[in-house]
Protein 1
Amino acid sequence: MASHHTMKMTMKLNRAKARTSLTNTYPHTYPHFSKHHLILVVLSAQLESSGDISPNKLVVNRPVSWCRNLVLAIALMVTCVGQADARKVSRVIIDPGHGGKDKGANRGTVYEKDLALKVAFLVEKMLKAKGMPVTMTRRSDQYISLRGRADIANRYSNAIFISIHFNAHTGTRLNGVETYYHSELGQKLAAHVHLRMLSQLQPRNGNTRQRKDLGVLKATRCPAILVECGYISNPDERKKCITSDYHQKCAQAIVDGIWAYKTYN
Ligand SMILES: [Zn+2]
């Protein structure tokens, strides 16, 4: 019943050439209803149900509804059915954002660069446990230029690049998780990781977006994404962002997303 409703909703969205909040990821109609398109359509519908998700607008906090969770669960299932079409991923480049003199965002004693490194170490540990080779762009509070980070990734073939960040805004109400990509390959990776971020963290808001202005994504030749794990400028979210439980969930979502991309994409 519920899945029928969801299918109807996604088909309706598809037919109606609906422009969603994911205008960059879903600007077209799809004559062939592929699995990847379905993921994006379901994700769009799921996010629309959460209200205003634009990071450029003030966000109205709404409780996470059971309906939203149900649609999300279905979207996750859809990504894991059908024929496996394995994508070759022989190395993951993990890029903890900022470092050294580049402090990134900070609020009081909470520094984005420190949180990003903590999540990155967890991602590294989990991927290594799965036998996946990993390269970290930094392992300490060290400055590396954006070009330098991309150069590390560009040394390898069949790699994917994940840049880990925490967000901040001058307003204190913005919240949620955002995942950016530059290329089409990055878009698919972003969709997989973002779905898992929504599932693990249950943020009130968040979307995936193409960003052509992020140097680190632009200069990286392999599929590359940048994950903003939460807003440290929002006092409530900051409290969560500093906990090891939250770091663990972020890392698990990133690893699960990488694995889904590698296995099913
Ligand atoms: Zn950042």
Protein 2
Amino acid sequence: MQQMRVAPSKSQFSFKDFLGLIKNTKPKYWQLFLGLALGLVATGVQLAVPSYAKQLINSFSKQFNIYMLIGIVVLFILSAVISAASGSLLGFFGEDVIQKLRNNIWHKLLHLRVSYFDDVKSGEMTSRLVNDSTQIKDLLSRSFPGLVTAIFTIVGAFAIMLFMDWKMTLIMAFSVPLVMAVMLPIAKKSHAIGHTRQDELARFNGETDETLSEIRLVKLSNAEQQASQQGQTAIGSLYKIGLREAIYDSVAGPIMTAVMMGLIVGILAYGSARVAQGTMTIGAMFSFLMYLFQLMGPAATLGQFFTTLSKASGSTERIQELMQESEEDFDHGTAVDVEGQTLKVESVDFGYEDDQTILHDLSFEAKPNTVVAFAGPSGGGKSTIFSLLERYYEPNQGAIKIGETSINDVSLADWRKQIGFVSQDSAIMAGTIRDNLTYGLTGEYADAQLWAVLQLAFAEKFVREMPEGLDTEVGTRGVKVSGGQRQRLAIARAFLRDPKILMLDEATASLDSESEAMVQKALETLMEGRTTLVIAHRLSTIVDADQIYFIENGHVSGAGKHQELVANHELYREYVETQFNQD
Ligand SMILES: Nc1ncnc2c1ncn2[C@@H]1O[C@H](COP(=O)(O)OP(=O)(O)O)[C@@H](O)[C@H]1O
Ligand SMILES: [Mg+2]
């Protein structure tokens, strides 16, 4: 049942994967193509400017041509307007893709199997959603069009220059490898440093995040000093990387400027000589310089493109991997009313990992409207049984049936709608009491209904005393309600959902005795008229149960009523004595 993860092996950019990913978002290609076309037009107009400038400059000696000047200004404006239109269109295109991509990833994440969440850190998942999608958008709507126009500029400018003066152009062209030879090692080095910094930053981010989210543990363990040290180490290595980066960054700038100056001086010297000879016009020389400046931007774009490409390549791979993970199947199965049907677990084997057995040959049944209790040593697999019943995981062997139907043939949404679950510390979301009660439910609920279930759960009083009643915010992870209150809210929620099968996993285990009594009473009301499976940690729950299963090492080692088990099952007797002698 565990899916093999697709091994990330290739580091090369896979165009096929990338296109596949993009195709799934059904992009508005017309925006891309129109944006690209406009970008080329704008570049074409820009390329025309130096040629006009040449004529303008050359015409100075005869007479000033005002129309020519106006013409050049108009060209500039025109190219700016077209450029802006092109940029906007490409931006729209990219935003549209990233929006759909994020929707796809978010949908995927929500529908993945629970086993995926056991293995992958939530930070990694949100990074797919936030960072990786951004990388892909950047490549698509910025770098790729940038590359196309850059190539167009370079080829166009080069062609025009060749046409204008091939000798001068070739001299310039030969200087390009020279410049590259100087710049490339620096660029490579600073790229590598950038990489190290990213990795270090990610690690630093993860470490601090972990520490801050467990701040109570840090304080209680007097671990501030230790955490502070850890932080300092990370901050220190970031500092060292920063120093190196500062050097390379500030070396790169001046060298680049020096090289450019050299080129310009060279062209000016050679050009002036040619002008003096009369084989070249002043206008042509200036126009050459203008082209040279026009080439600088595209050259940088070319260099950066490969960085973006390699980033987007990693992102594509990671998103692809995520998209290939298997999902829970919400389409299969029909709606089945579980009311009045016996829940049967038949010879189930299960392990979280492939080579592991947590449950083996486990069988039990729960007749409608009875209370079935599970008891046994910690780690025996009781909560795992509940996870299987909730269909977070699937058994490797055996079957779970409701009546004669396998629960796999009940539609997942319908199945989960009919089971209620209250655990040791019930989950609560940031939001109001009302939000928490109706979470996931689609209907409209009147206040009176909500108060009614709160009353059944012995939660009415404390909610009434809250400053804003049902609309009181409970804080992140419900920090503003106590453990007992949280449990009673979970029970109120269960009342509202009115499940046919109720599962209680040590629901009162973490409570003080006063809260425990109240939660227990609320649970007893909730259990009425439902099939209840309860993982017990209180003796009274076991004693009152219609049937008890004693779970040891993933196996049922004894079943029956309390008295029967006490009489026949030695381990059970010992367990009850050690666990419950305080009751
Ligand atoms: N998500 C999980 N992934 C891997 N192993 C798990 C997971 N949850 C529980 N286990 C393991 O399964 C075994 C049974 O755990 P559990 O069902 O929680 O026992 P119980 O509820 O009886 O105390 C334990 O050995 C536990 O370490
Ligand atoms: Mg448990």
